[in-house]
Design brief:
The complex is a heterodimer. Chain A is α+β, with helices and mostly antiparallel strands. Helices cover 24% and strands 17% of the residues of chain A. Chain A is elongated, with a radius of gyration of 32 Å. Chain B is an alpha+beta fold. Chain B folds into two domains: 160 residues, Bira Bifunctional Protein, Domain 2 (BirA Bifunctional Protein, domain 2); 94 residues, CO dehydrogenase flavoprotein, C-terminal domain (Enolase-like, domain 1, 2-Layer Sandwich). Chain B contains ten helices and ten strands. Classes of the chains: A alpha+beta, B alpha+beta. The interface between A and B is large, with 63 and 66 residues. Strand 5 of chain A pairs parallel with strand 5 of chain B, so a sheet runs across the interface.
Chain lengths: 441, 289
């Protein structure tokens, strides 16, 4: 495809006569672009044609556009809902690639392409109603692409493998798990263009990431042998481009061209949880903070915990150090109830809270949350451990609710669990104090 | 949804179309795999009805043109869904043998009122278990009859082979597929656009006062796309209700995600309005189910 010469005009003419003969083509479907002047200026973009995001403008010439109609689904169904597009305008498709999924009220059907080519137009939006017999997509076919008939399907009542994770590309199956396939789709990569390094040529997540890195010129973490990653740049010498003139006597630089980083800034609007965090943290830092740090010898605690750990496990409870700290905090709050209080609006009144609802900062799929153990003053270390296990399980499942998250009166943050030794925690309003624990060393 | 969570019932979304199904060990799932050319749902359902008539001749079972199977003309004992790809297909259906009917009806009841969308409305039908009308029908007996009828209909001589669907060595990658079918992105993240329009009843317990507010939310792909609350300004200042709406934007339409975002937001406000804000958050979370 890279070398576009005058001879290609003949090839194009041959293609047209071939295609007129094929019964799949109705003369009115053929839109041949007679304007071939832009050919010369497109040469320098043609090497980017394969697997590139700029595919839309990079095709070297215009091929005939075929209207791919939605074929009869059967059972007298005249219209279906488009549930999902697997391609978008500008994508390269091969015969048998999945184009979209449509649904009638009980059957879900994957529509696959009859042609090789480039998607030029999608006729419907997701959730739109597609009509049987009407165009679904426009595909610009390549020259010389074979438009074969559908092979006769051998009838087998036995199980036929569902083709959801495989793509047949000219007889070569490309294997990839759904997760890898989705990653490829999100990044607009055709699996046929990725070299699979897994078993049987299976495409792994690393293969997709490597492919992406090559595209954007990002430098990957160093591998044992350092490879210089180069983006496909413009073809250095074409008859139409200005030849590079090297002044006589000057040696060209011996090193390869510097990798050009072609990544772009990505803007992501702040939403939901993060937006709320901004407000809360801003309000929190308006509170005048006083910090106090100390180091504590925990040798006896370490011993105690190791003694109690197995007993707890036998009773189905995982015992960490936190229940001890939480109980200790509560005992401390009995001596200094002012630390378990809250200031009202305008700082007019100090409300001493009766319950010690001690929160523990937790990183969950919902975000950085602080569920609390209610009424620690009435609980034993073991009961605290039980409740903590329950909260941790909910956190892991992304199911912490308002009863777990509300009404905390004091908070502990365990920086040690991620390896930190010291931290400067931020008080969570409406509380008045917070403790941070570093790693036991 | 809250009932499901309380009962710890897992949720997965299938790749074939149709409505929600409740499955327990009393509800048989039958899947007929065939090439696309051999796709014939009525023929498959005939296997089921003929098998049933063999074991219980007195049973009046009939497949409808909507591919349901009705008992005595009006109790639904089976529903159908299917998926077609380029060369192959599958047709699966349920068969209510002895499912927990009260769980079925309570769990299939929508928990969120006020939803409007372009989705095909679900038509609830009265259901029945086979064992309600043929108490002596054993599960194994039913399976054997189906196998026999299947072989007879398709001219085969296969025996019933038990397989474990979670066996990775037999079905490599099945664990990943299961995780995907249960993932949020697949179960809720592909939800077509819908609107929630409902009246919120707000209360301030301390002052024994209350008011009504109108909620209008748009959700696309499971994420809150827009949220408007018409709350009287003398109940809550406009800036608070609009900020709260903003906090929900872009979050999943999920009471847990909303609870996380709202709890964080509540920390940034204090004072008398805090009580009313808390109440508003509670009411909102209840709408999300």
């Amino acid at each position: 495809m890279a070398a576009v010469t005058r001879g290609s005009f003949n090839a194009l003419r041959r293609l047209l006569t071939q295609q007129y003969r094929r019964r799949c083509f109705q003369p009115q479907n053929l839109r041949f672009n007679r304007n071939l002047k832009p050919l010369a200026s497109r040469w320098d973009r043609s090497p980017q044609m394969f697997g590139s995001r700029t595919l839309r403008t990079a095709v070297a010439w215009r091929g005939p556009i075929v209207q791919f109609k939605l074929s009869d689904i059967g059972e007298g169904i005249m219209e279906v809902t488009v549930k999902e597009w697997y391609v978008k305008e500008g994508d390269k498709v091969s015969q048998f690639d999945s184009i979209c999924e449509v649904q009638s009220d009980k059957a879900s059907v994957t529509i696959t392409s009859r042609y090789d080519g480039v998607i030029r137009k999608l006729y419907y939006d997701v959730d739109g109603t597609a009509l049987v017999g009407k165009p679904l997509v426009d595909i610009e076919t390549e020259s010389g692409s074979e438009l074969s008939q559908e092979e006769d399907v051998v009838e087998t009542p036995a199980m036929a493998r569902e083709e959801h994770t495989h793509q047949e590309i000219k007889g070569h199956k490309t294997q990839a798990t759904p997760a890898v396939r989705r990653l490829a789709m999100e990044n607009n990569i055709k699996l046929s263009e990725v070299v699979g390094t897994g078993k049987d040529g299976r495409i792994l997540k690393e293969d997709i990431l490597n492919f992406l890195a090559k595209q954007t010129g990002a430098i990957l973490p160093p591998t044992p042998v350092f490879h210089e990653i180069q983006t496909p740049g413009p073809a250095p010498s074409t008859p139409a481009a200005t030849p590079m003139s090297i002044p006589a006597g000057v040696k060209p630089p011996p090193t390869a061209p510097k990798p050009v980083f072609s990544g772009k800034d990505v803007t992501e609007p702040l939403k939901g949880f993060h937006k709320a965090m901004v407000k809360t943290m801003t309000a929190a830092l308006k509170i005048p903070h006083f910090g106090y740090c100390d180091e504590v010898d925990l040798s006896r605690l370490v011993l105690l915990r190791s003694e109690l750990k197995t007993t707890a496990e036998r009773r189905g409870v995982k015992l960490s150090y936190m229940p001890f700290f939480i109980k200790a905090a509560s005992l401390g709050l009995l001596h200094f109830p002012i630390l378990n209080s809250s200031l009202d609006e305008g700082c007019q009144n100090l409300i001493y809270k009766a319950s010690h609802n001690i929160g523990l900062a937790m990183d969950t799929s919902q975000g950085l949350l602080v569920p609390n153990v209610k009424n620690v003053q009435s609980l034993s270390v073991f009961e605290i451990a039980q409740e903590l296990n329950r909260l941790q399980a909910l956190g892991a499942a992304g199911q912490l609710g308002k009863s777990e998250l509300n009404e905390g009166t004091f908070t502990l943050s365990n920086i040690g669990s991620i390896g930190g030794t010291y931290a400067k925690p931020v008080i969570l309003p409406p509380e008045v104090a917070i403790g941070a624990l570093g790693k036991i060393q | 949804m809250p009932a499901m969570r309380r009962a710890m019932i897992p949720l997965a979304r299938r790749r074939s179309g149709g409505g929600t199904v409740y499955h327990d060990l009393g509800n048989l799932n039958l899947t007929f795999f065939a090439s696309k050319k051999a796709y014939d749902r009525q023929r498959n359902l005939k296997v089921v009805t003929e098998a049933l008539r063999r074991v219980c001749p007195e049973l009046d079972v009939q497949a409808t043109d909507r591919f349901d199977i009705l008992l005595k003309g009006h109790h639904k004992i089976s529903g159908t869904a299917s998926r077609l790809s380029r060369k192959s297909s599958y047709h699966h259906c349920t068969l209510l043998h002895s499912a927990d009917r009260s769980a079925l009806s309570s769990l299939l009841r929508p928990s969120c009122t006020g939803i409007q969308s372009n989705a095909t409305p679900s038509v609830p039908s009265p259901v029945a278990n086979l064992t309600d009308h043929a108490p002596s029908l054993q599960w194994e007996e039913l399976l054997e009859a189906l196998v026999q009828q299947y072989n007879s209909e398709f001219g085969l001589t296969s025996a019933l082979t038990p397989v474990s669907p979670s066996d990775e060595s037999l079905f490599p990658g099945v664990g990943n597929m299961e995780a995907e079918l249960r993932s949020w992105e697949w179960t809720f993240g592909k939800t077509p656009k819908f609107r929630v329009e409902t009246q919120l009843e707000l209360r301030d317990e301390q002052l024994a006062a209350g008011c009504s507010a109108y909620l209008h939310m748009e959700v696309k792909n499971g994420l809150v796309e827009s949220c408007r609350m018409d709350i009287p300004a003398n109940w809550l200042p406009l800036r608070l209700s609009s900020t709260l709406s903003e906090v929900l934007l872009g979050e999943r339409f999920c009471p847990h995600r909303a609870a996380a975002a709202l709890t964080v937001f509540l920390r940034s406000e204090s004072g008398q309005l805090h009580r009313r804000l808390c109440n508003l958050c509670e009411v909102l979370l209840a709408v999300m189910g």
